[in-house]
Amino acid sequence: MHEDTIKPYFNRLFEIVKIWTEKSKRFSPSQEALWLNFIVTAISKHGDNQISQKGFILSFPQATSLPVVNINDSVKLILEFLDKDGKLINLSNTASIVTGIPLLVQNGKNVVDNPKQDDLAHARTALGVCNDGTIVIVVVEHIYKQHVKDLKLVQVRSILRKEKEINVDKLIIPEALKILEKHLVNYTVIGLTKTELAYYMLTWI
Predict the structure, then answer these.
(1) Do 136 and 204 meet the contact criterion of CB atoms below 8 Å apart?
(2) Which of 45-54, 100-109, 196-205 has the largest mean confidence?
(3) What region holds the Phosphodiester glycosidase domain (predicted)?
């Protein structure tokens, strides 16, 4: 999708964070780090996580980093950039930070106030730094639509176990399919692709 066709569906209600460089007394993208302190309040499986209205979602590699993270752990994030000479300042790619409403984009529109937050959506996020030092964080809706035929047996077993009133030994296939379909995400909106999001970020330059 071309950049011009994306613009009408968005406005600039996104949160803007500016980094102040104390040394030069001005906003600058060459600031070495942005320090943010958090406490882990919950740990969820990857995908289809609700985006907290006041909190943040951190995404870690599931097989390696996630097992060592525990609830009530302190988390200090350092956001690093290139310096004025273009030298890399230890840019980390081990985790990504996703901010919640009002940054969430759903159905092609910015969600400014949605206190219920009952829509299951997996966030796709982008971070950009403008020439004046403005940091732009954009989060858009991205929903995975999974079909019954794509389920793994371990997923089927997990879903069926949640149904307390059924006898798995006597369950027939048509009934099992109805139960599985009920638990799957079946929204039609899938949000922006990575390319579309990249074009949108260019509008901030």
Answers:
(1) yes
(2) 196-205
(3) 66-162
What would the mean pLDDT of 106-113 be, rounded to a whole number? 51
For 21, the enclosing helix (H) or strand (E) is strand 20-21
Q: Pairing state of beta strands 26-27 and 20-21?
A: antiparallel
Q: Which residues pair with 110 in a beta bridge?
A: 105
| Residue 82 vs residue 27, higher pLDDT | 82
Residues 6+ apart with CB under 8 A from 145: 184, 185, 186, 187, 188, 190
Sign of the Cα torsion 165, 119, 97, 85 reads positive
Q: What is the DSSP string of 31-75?
A: --EEEEEEE------SSSPPPPSSSEEEE--TTTTGGG--TT-EE
What residue type is 63 in one-letter code?
A
Which residues are registered as beta bridge partners of 104? 139
The model carries a pTM of 0.31
CB crowding 24-47: b at 16 or more within 10 Å, else e: eeeebbbbeeeeeeeeeeeeeeee
Q: What is the pLDDT of residues 169-201, one digit of tens each?
A: 888 888 888 888 777 655 444 556 666 666 666
| Tokens 């969600």 belong to residue | 111
